[in-house]
Amino acid sequence: MRARHVLVTGGSRGIGREIARKMMQGGDIVTVLGRSEAQLEAVVGAGDAHHYVVSDITCEKELDNAFHRAVAQAGAINVLVNNAGGSSSARFADMAMDAFVQAFRLNVLGAARLCQLVLPSMVERRDGRIVNVASTAALRGYTYVSPYVTAKHALLGLTRSLALEYARYGITVNAVCPGFTESDLVRDSVERIVRKSGRPAEDIRTEFARFNPRGCLNSVEEVAVAAAFLCGREAGAINGIALPVAGGEVG
């Protein structure tokens, strides 16, 4: 069976890097995309990916160029994992409307553009896998992160729409929805809250862990296993789902 070319965005650290590692372990050729060339070089140097391309996910021209470089390096993309994303926090009353624009650029529009870029060759081959790393924030609300929650709901809507539109071509489009995970995103959130509130970091981490009925944060490996499963060749009948990785926080 021919190795597939997998593109993972936000692949320089955290969940994205772990997904890249899992896909490599399964025999795929993996390209990671991110903003930091030094971090991406470290991922490839550690053997967690074969190739990398540098791009800001919010800049369409950069993203298009990075996509074409990835194809030139290792061929058409067979599997796309849209993992890049991020959040900011504030009370809704204090939130600048630009925060919603930025949240959509970071969490939705880059993913949508890459889907546009990969789908023609997938349609031609009548085969492909797209996994969008959403969040439990795509399935419920959280306080103080309304732009992020809104954007992740939109990403799930995109997932479901594309799943229906492209199922006839043997392409699946699914979402993984992690709860609070021991990742860079959560660590950044903890640091931001510490700066704003002066509260101990461990207290904030404990609050995050309480959302999970297990009383702990998820691991990046647990999220990567779920994503790799949905990317599998055998997962052709699984399409348009939102798979929570959250210990029972959401159904």
UniProtKB/TrEMBL annotation:
Similarity comment: family membership: Belongs to the short-chain dehydrogenases/reductases (SDR) family.
This protein's UniProt keywords: Oxidoreductase
One protein family per Pfam: adh_short
EC number: 1.1.1.100
Protein name (database record): 3-oxoacyl-[acyl-carrier-protein] reductase FabG
Biological processes per GO annotation: monocarboxylic acid metabolic process
PANTHER family referenced in this protein's UniProt entry, alphabetically: 3-OXOACYL-(ACYL-CARRIER-PROTEIN) REDUCTASE
